[in-house]
Structures are given as C-alpha cells and as structure tokens.
Amino acid sequence: MQLDPATCRERVLRRSAVLAGWRSAIACVIATALLTALSPLDRAGAAERRPQPRQAAAQARLPKAVTDAPSGTPIAVAPIDRQRRDAVAEAAARIDRLVEGGWKERGLEGSQPLDDARYVRRLFLELGGRIPTHDETVAFLADDDPAKRVELIDRLLESPDYVSHFYNYWADILRLTERPQRNLFCEPYLDWVKHSIAANRPYDQWVREMLTADGKTWENPAVGYQLRDQGMPLPYVDNTVRVFLGTQIGCAQCHDHPFDSWTQHQFYELAAFTAGTRAGAGGKLPKEQRRAAQADPLVRTVRGLMVQARRSARDGKVDNQFLQFLQANGTVVSHHTVPLTLPHDYKYDDAAPLDVVAPKVLWGEVPSAAAGADGREQFAAWLTARDNRQFARTVANRLWKKVMGVGLVTPVDDFRESNPPSHPELLEHLTDLVLELDFDLREYLRVLVSTATYARRAVVHDPASGTPFAFTGPALKRMTAEQLWDSILTLVAQDPWDYQRPAAEAFAVAADLDLTVGKVSLDDAQQAYRRFIAAFGPRQTRVQLVREYGYHGQVLARASELPTPLPLGHFLRQFGQSDRESIEGGRTVATIPQILAMFNGPITHAMLERGSVIHSEVTAGDPKRAVDVIFLAVLAHPPGAEDRQLAIREITSAETPATGVGNVIWALLNTREFLFIQ
Fold it and tell me: Suppose 154 and one of 46, 80, 223, 504 were both cysteines; which one would form an S-S bond, judging by CB atoms 3.0 to 4.6 Å apart?
C-alpha cells in the first residue's frame, strides 16, 4: 500500500472534525501542532520533502521474524485464581461506595459507563499495554456472556502482555537500564524484574530481596537494584525512600528539609543502615570503604589483570571494554559494617561535624526479628514491614494513579502533612486492601479494574486547577510511549514476542569469569571476554537485532524487550520514554517531532508493508469490509455512517485501492481518538 501525504493530511483534519472525542489541554496541543506543522505543506511540497512509501517499500521489507506466525508461549505467567471472582467483585463494590460517597458530598454524578468497544480497548491498553487486535475486538463484541468483562480481566492479567506492560511501568520507576555504569552489566537484573512480575511474586518479598541481595548480577540478579546507585550511598537512600515510601527526604542530605520536618541528622541516621554496602572492584567507592576493598583478594586479582592488560597493550592502546569486563566480574555486592560520619561542614547544634551516626529509622521501630541482623537487613525489614503502613500506602496510591490517572496523593512520592490525600478514607481502605491481599499487586489491580468507577468514560482533569479530582471516571490520558509503540506493533507483527531480552542464565554462561579458583591468566580472561562480546557485546547485539528484526533501523519487538536506554531519535524517546536517569522520568507531553514521527516515521510505514497484520486483513475483501476491518483494528469499534462513507470514497477514488486503504489507516492512526485512552 502507498500513502498520499497531502490526501492524508486532509483526511486527518476532516476525521478530527467528524469524530466525537474528548478534548483536553493536551489534545488541543496535539491538534494545534497538527495544523501548525502541516498547513504549509501542499502536495508538491510533501512529495519533495518526504520519502515516498513506494520507494521505502522497495528498500526494505518486514523481517521474517515479524511476518512468521508465532510459535510457543512467549513467557510463562502465574495463573489467576478464578475462584476469587466473588471476593473481587465485593472488594470492588466497597471501593465504588467510597468513591460515590465523595460525589454526593460535592453534588456530582459519575460519567457514563463505557460501551463494550471502548471498554475492550481501554482494558487492553491498561493491563496489556497495547490495543486489541481485530480478532480480539470482534470476539469480545460478539460475545453475549454477561461475565465476559470479568473473563477478559482475568485473561489479560495472566498474559505475557501484562508482564510486558508492567515491566515498562516498573522500569520507569526503578530506572532500569542495562549499563547504569560502563562496568556494571545489569541485563540479568532487568530479566529478573520481568520474571518476578510474571511469577506474581508478593511485592514485599520482591522489594526486600532487592534491598538485601549479595553477589554478582548474573549470580543473584536482584543486586541490580543496589548497583543502580553504586558508589552513591546517600542518593541510594533518597531514591529508595521516594520509590517505596513515597517520601522525599533528598533535601536533607545537605541541610534540614525546608518544606518538611526531616532533618539532616535524621537522613544520616537512616543512611547509616546501608552505609556498609559495597560492590568489590567495580566503579567508585566511598572513602570509608576503600581500605576494606583494597584488602579483598578479588579486588587485587581484578586490578592485577588490569595492570597486565595495560602493560601488554600494543602502542599503549588498551581495550577499555575489556577492562570493564574485568571490573564487572569483580563487582560483587556485599555488606560490611562501616560507620557513617556526619559531613565536615555539618552546622546544626544536635551533633558535631564528623561525628559517627547511630542507625535510626524515620518512624516506628526496626522489627524485633531483624534486630540482630546487619544494618542493610534491618533497613529492609523496617521498610517492608506490615505495620509500616506507609510502604503499603505508597504502592496502593501508585497503582490507583496507574489505573485511574490521578493519585489520591499527588505527586505519588510526596506524602507530607501539607499535601494531604484528596480522599483520606479511600486511601486508608486501599492500604488495608493491599495488606489483606498480602501484597499481591496483581490481585489488587484486578480489584481496581473491576470497579464501576474504572468502567466509566474518561473525564478531563486539569492538574493546575487546584481542585481535587473527584473520580467521576478515570482521568483522560494519552498513551505512554510504550503503549503507543506496542499498539502500532500489534498492527504490524504476527509475533511481536519473537525477540526477547537475554535470560539471566544465558548471560551468566557468557559473562562469568571465575576469579576465585586458582590463578587466572590474562590470556584466559581475554578469551572469556571475546566469547562474551560475541554473544552480548552492545555493538554486536545491535547489529544482530537490526539484521533479524529491523525495518529501516527500527527493531520490531515489544518495548519491554528493546535495549535501554534507547537513543534520543528513537520513536519511543520521541514520545517521552524516560532516559532512566530520574524516577518516573517518562512524559506524555505533545511535541512537533511526535507529529512528524506519526506522519512519516518508519514504524507507521511498517504497517503498510506486505505481510503486516493489518495489510493481510484489509486486502482480503472489498472496500466495505476493508473499512470495517480498519476501524475495528485501529479504534476497536465499527465506523459510523459518515466515517464509512468518507473512507469508502477515499479507497475507491485513490490511484489504487491499496493506496486508499493505506490513507485511511494512516489517517485514523493520527487522530486523538487513537492516541488517547477514553
């Protein structure tokens, strides 16, 4: 199929006028950007400035891995307990009663319930991170079983799509990246996070393991969490408290908090629990750990090999990647009791500069069962304890925002007395629910999406209004970058799971260099390095991915499986995927590059190549059927009368039917209705 850019521009603008859609500030920005970006282009200008799809098609075709039918199960996912459906319905009804009580106090009513078409689309996006396929939509709309919504919830929650989507969600929070430092190989940690979600591990166990794990990343991948801020013990504590306790204490690293009650002394007391965590030979070490590290036989072995490598390098040019490989093998997380002292410029009256700080938690007490353990174990036990309600409260609020669009406390990591929850009783009820479910976050999500509140039409929320959100329906929101990528991939790839990120076990076989048995020669180390680079070297991996799964340089795989962080020019980064340097750094703000990517990016052209899912579906019948298929595949509902008429006219009047069909697909893809979750 081919695209006519000028015709498509006209169809986008006409379609925007025809479709009844929700308007929000962001939607208006996108509409304005469309008009601003495209109005100067006429047919001739568009032809001059853009590569024509016909030419692009001649240069590349969809990779075989994308066009072949799927084989096998992508990832094993723990099954849902369908015997709990009545309990889930009862828990959802209690939440609805609390929400509706807030409406009555304000004289409000809930928005309209979703019809099946909007419901199936929202649920797939919310739980699976993508739009439903044409066949999935048709099957759901045709199903007359009263329990079909309940069944769809359960089926999505035990699907690989759920794992992929919530991996993306946690990757943004935990700042997951493969190489946070050049000498840190964290690919096994990323795989561990994905499989922890698939196994539905209880949240408190999951977090506690990350906070206390020892070893190399490929021996015990959970150590990746501690390595994320390796060499930065104070930011590590700040980030951990923000993520898991929803509390911002970072300002107290340098001085008493100007907007909250936390003091610098309190910050150092908390940091004293984890100050003894170190990672052997890899990267920087705080000065109080250097002496202990230098006495470590593993550190001496790694440094000895690095000295040999520098001395034997030809022309003095040492292979820095080899040195990083050695450092990675010497990076072994462990904990040793090391005193933490106040900074030399400490200026408050409650202690003197360079005083040793005794460990103390911010509130409550360290559980008695952990009282005799090392500081890191005590810190983890306190943070994840059932009677530390702030731990459960924070994740309850985070996932409420994930589902409903706005947190009960917002920002979600800014719990303080001067920033109270909009619905205090509801927040405490949700906290109780997380505890009752023993930190089963998937079951908690199951309850949230089973509420009548969730199944209502989205409503516009202006965060700048200062008015608490009433939750008369979920807040209108744009797809995340990952949802948008995976939705377009749904229209392209027969098997979007054909490529998955490397398993921790396979990575371990290639990466491990045993430095503890006998004497390792430089030649042995270099041979191991060459084997590792051949299998998992960043450059070699990129080349292989583009060769086997690439289309115009874009690797057609689920967002959760792509290397991270991606380069700035990638579609996902253009649409706001985080660089994974800041907590929840992803954005959904509209920009002009996004418009250009949707209008002329390689991923949108991939849909129109022979062999793509939607190409195969729309070329199998007459124009009327093609229009029905396009609307159901892209927007999850049949076309209205005027939409049908316009679309059929476009197909029949185009130079070829394939060109007309391509124009209709492309136009719908560039509407607010596609980009936003209603």
Answer: 80
